[in-house]
Amino acid sequence: MSSIQQLPPSVITKIAAGEVIERPASVLKELLENSVDAGSTRIDVDVEQGGVELIRVVDNGCGIPAEELPLAFASHATSKLASADDLFRIGTLGFRGEALASIGGVAQVTLQSRGTDDSCGAEITCHGGDLSGVRAWNGGAGTRLEVRHLFFNTPVRRKFMRTISTEMGHLSEQFTRLALSHPQISWTLRHNGKLTYELPAGMPFPERIRLFFGKEISDHLYSLEAKQGPVTLRGWIADPSCERGTAKTQYVFLNGRWIRDRSLGHALQEGYRGLLMSGRYAVAFLFLDLPVDQVDVNVHPTKAEVRFRDGNALHHLVHAAVRERLRAENLTARLQAPFSTLGGLNHQSTSVFRLQAEATASRLPFTSAFLPEPPPASHSVPEPVPDSPLRDRSEQPGPAGADKQRPGKGSETEERLSQLPPTGSFKAIQLYDTYLVLETSEGMLVIDQHALHERILFEALKERLQSGPLETQRLLIPEPVDLSADAAARTLECRDALAQLGLEVSDFGGGTILLSSYPAILGRRPPQEILQAVVDHLLNKDRPPSREVLLNDLLSLMACHGAVRAGDRLTAEEIEALVAQRTLADNTHHCPHGRPTALLFSRRELERQFRRV
Q1: Which of 54, 243, 444, 538 has CB atoms 3.0–4.6 Å from 48's, for a disulfide?
Q2: Domain 205-327 falls in which CATH fold?
Q3: pTM of the predicted model, to two decimals?
Q4: Fold for the domain defined by 367-378+390-602
């Protein structure tokens, strides 16, 4: 084995560069952060060949005195920290004092700067860690940094560079993050001499979003603002219809710094719960401002990860603010038909628009058709529940030997039913035994009967759960369900939450679970099938969900199993009952799994398609 020896500074610099400088975008990030910290009001960026050949950043900040230029390339030399205590109250973007040293070790760098009060500036070069002398420079106030031939002395690293377009994409992303979080600065970005972005200072945020992300997102943003103690949250969240397949359009900024935090990302997604399908992500731009002593940014060299003193409070703030803001909006999806379809309409399709369903002569009085009644207020024998148009679809008699507990009526449900529109006040027809077409004041509303019924059941079950356990069907003989050891253990961990939903399970040993009861709302569905669906859901989670999330997920599952299906033919009474109950539930524009329950084809759009306007 070789003897221990101290590494030379050139090797130390290259090791440090491996942590901080991954690609041209890493260089740009460090340079832009320095420009922002210098108090610049204008920053111009020029790059060539995706930043591999040239990255030039010019700002009008405070500049660097001539005598301090050599220190700018020294390891751990910085003007932003004076003592170890300053690490716990960092108010600048940069602070580690290793960026320029790392960049200078793997590139050819020219630094030119002049302070606002200096009559003449100075310049210095650093080629692969070798510093030149300081020379006079006759330039404007501010700093001009050129980084050429990145990784020229580490050819292995250079070989790992991707295509020019890929590297330019990463550069644009870093530019976007800084430009979004510092609107008080004028920004420009040029690639190979061609202007890519130009953002004047004070440019409204929606216009910045349109410039970077397009009209689809900028036209569907909802402003957001909340405060909790010394913490302020502001920003913009997009309509659920703008959802994406990745979380890359979720931007979270902390005191002007772009950060990556799983807890805040989870809070954002939870705020959209029930509005997005599985595997889809919300679009959001959130800005958090909190005291610098409440967060530790000295976690990783890239400074993208932070630690909060009270992460739970921030999670609650983001989740509650997003949820409440979305509740204030009408999120019913709108159908936009292109003009190109005009020539393709035939008599069969246009005849659908002329259909109007007339109210039948003998309509049953509207009752709480789809919903289980609230639990009785006392232990007295509950009065029977009246029959209703769709009750036999979702609450069939249980298996032989089951003891079904029936609830009584509740004043809250009666009060909500009194707010429904009068019978026969709307026209609706069913298409393909799956969709309901409804005439409204806004236009033609097309409803997915399963998605809407699922949302109504979900809201009713949630409301019922708040007042006590759901009614159950108890099995006289518990049914054994064989599972794997892992599945059985995961299920037993959640037994208390399952019991609240009417699923009583116990351990029989050897991976076998005994099921003693199940929710009455699921009717004739085999108990083993119900439990297996729950187990599959639990196993799909990377880690056991919180109690609140688990109950929410299981209620969604139960509502899905209890709702009418696509392909179920509904009577006129059932259609009327389902449509009327849209007023009983919150967020009826989406089912609990995030699918839209309805599409609105506006009257104006309809007239435009028929060329009436």
Answers
A1: 54
A2: Ribosomal Protein S5; domain 2 (3.30.230)
A3: 0.64
A4: Ribosomal Protein S8; Chain: A, domain 1 (3.30.1370)
